[in-house]
Amino acid sequence: MKINISGHHVDVTEAVRAHINEKFSKIASHFPSLISLDIILSKEHHKHQAEISTTYEGARLSVKGEDEVMYPAIANAAKKLDASLKHRKGQMKAKLHEKPVSTTPEIAHEIIQEMNLT
Fold first, then answer.
1. What is the distance between the terminal CA atoms of the chain, rounded to a whole angstrom?
2. N or C end of the chain: smaller count of CB under 10 Å?
3. CA dist list (Å): 98 to 18, 58, 74, 93, 94
């Protein structure tokens, strides 16, 4: 899985890159068809934000994590991304199952006409 990291008012150091790779290695193993992640780290109004966007099974997913410190913001976003990927995977599996077919109930007067009442 390819991880594209960019920073907005934040320096992306090697330690931050290593932390991000560690956090998202679990997600990469659980969702092998996930090709890439776009991560934008920013700091606005004394809050760190980590915004992650990706495409998984034809759906565009985007999550955002916030915290006063950068590392918990990244962890928060990773947790949200994992939850949204699991939700999407569940939607895809639900489409594979056969839907129940509803049958129309027989009308009472048709049943009575077929009965031998003599």
1. 77
2. C
3. 44, 21, 39, 11, 9
pLDDT for res 109: 65
Q: What share of the chain is helix, strand, coil (3-state, %, to 5)?
A: 45, 30, 25
CATH number of 2-92: 3.30.160.100, 3.55.40.20, 3.30.1840.10, 3.30.70.260? 3.30.160.100
d(CA 45, CA 113): 78
pLDDT along the chain (118 residues), means of 10: 91 93 89 91 93 91 94 94 91 76 64 68
> CA-based angle 33:4:60, to the nearest 5?
50
If DSSP codes are grouped into helix, strand and coil, which group holds residue 73?
helix
Nearest in space to 36 (alpha carbons), one of 65, 15, 5, 13 = 5
Environment class of residue 23 by beta-carbon count within 10 Å: exposed (0-12), middle (13-18) or buried (19+)?
A: buried
Output the six-digit token pair for 111.
Answer: 């049943």
